[in-house]
Specification:
alpha/beta, three-stranded parallel sheet, 6 helices
């Protein structure tokens, strides 16, 4: 099935991970190697978001989902699995789909999201309004890690 739903689809893979080699092999086996570019880890990921039309990460497990927050802040529609925490839904740009759904359902949903996406603009005001600023989030994360650390020490 070669890009039947969106013939212009192109995958930009930013980062690495333990499944990267498996994905590369699968894409090659499917004859899709020309439809993807692996760029590796990048310190300026926000600039790469501007090259994307949709951020897609079907996580089996996702802790806080900070990448989804970053992507939404740039105005990028996001699609993650239902395993991504509900707290990532800061804007209407965040969409979650079950990993139990097949790839066709994922593709149809992503196409629908792309077709409905208009007027991409930064969403930093949405984050500020919901008190998702760097300082507040940093404090929340520190408190959470301290809680986990002390909880572990008590056991």
């Amino acid at each position: 099935m070669r890009r039947k739903i969106e013939p212009k689809a192109f995958l930009l893979w930013v980062g690495d991970g333990e499944l990267k080699n498996n994905v590369e092999k699968k894409l090659y086996d499917m004859g899709l190697e020309r439809d993807v570019q692996f760029v590796g880890r990048k310190p300026n990921v926000q600039e790469w978001y501007s090259a994307m039309d949709l951020f897609f990460l079907p996580s089996v497990f996702e802790g806080m989902g900070i990448v989804f927050l970053e992507a939404q802040c740039t105005g990028l529609p996001c699609v993650g699995s239902s395993n991504v925490p509900i707290e990532t839904e800061i804007t209407e740009l965040m969409h979650r789909i079950s990993l139990k759904d097949n790839e066709k359902i994922w593709a149809i949903q992503m196409k629908k999201i792309l077709d409905e996406s208009i007027n991409r603009k930064t969403r930093d005001k949405d984050f500020i309004d919901k008190e998702y600023t760097h300082d507040l989030t940093q404090n929340d994360l520190r408190d959470y890690y301290n809680y986990l650390l002390y909880k572990k020490e008590e056991n």
